[in-house]
Design goal:
Layout: E1 8-12, H1 22-31, E2 38-39, E3 55-56, E4 59-60, H2 71-81, E5 96-100, H3 101-107, E6 111-116, E7 119-124
Antiparallel strand pairs: 1-5, 2-5, 3-4, 6-7
């Protein structure tokens, strides 16, 4: 993260499936308001960021794609019908984040979790 040179930094899990235009859409969101510091995408199974439902029977919803609908097609539909309305959420899942450099500089870097003899210890990555 320190080595990144841009004003925006992406953190992306290696198992995350992205669709065409994903980064442009997230950039549009973060640049729509200078008060926005961190953004994350919508997904079919990402707790608060899930669509169309985020809760099911008291648990996080899993929203299987309809038969014959690919992830790319679903992304097109969300893009087409969302009206570029950006929701404010109480937290974001870390599977995919776009962070303003100035925010990262203010809040610091991620926490590294280290297990030492069965005990969890958190250390700030500096």
């Amino acid at each position: 993260m320190k080595a990144a040179k841009g004003d925006l930094v992406v953190l992306l899990n290696s198992d995350t499936i992205v669709t065409p235009g994903w980064l442009d859409q997230m950039t549009t969101c973060v640049q729509s308001d200078s008060k926005i510091g961190i953004v994350g995408p919508l997904s079919n199974t990402a707790s608060w960021q899930s669509i169309p439902e985020f809760e099911s029977n008291g648990d996080w919803a899993t929203n299987p794609l309809p038969p014959g609908v690919t992830a790319e097609k679903m992304a097109e539909l969300v893009d087409k019908y969302s009206g570029y309305l950006f929701s404010s959420l109480p937290f974001l899942n870390g599977f995919c984040l776009l962070i303003r450099r100035e925010v990262m500089n203010q809040i610091g870097y991620l926490m590294r979790i280290v297990l030492v003899r069965g005990m969890e210890r958190r250390m700030t990555i500096a």
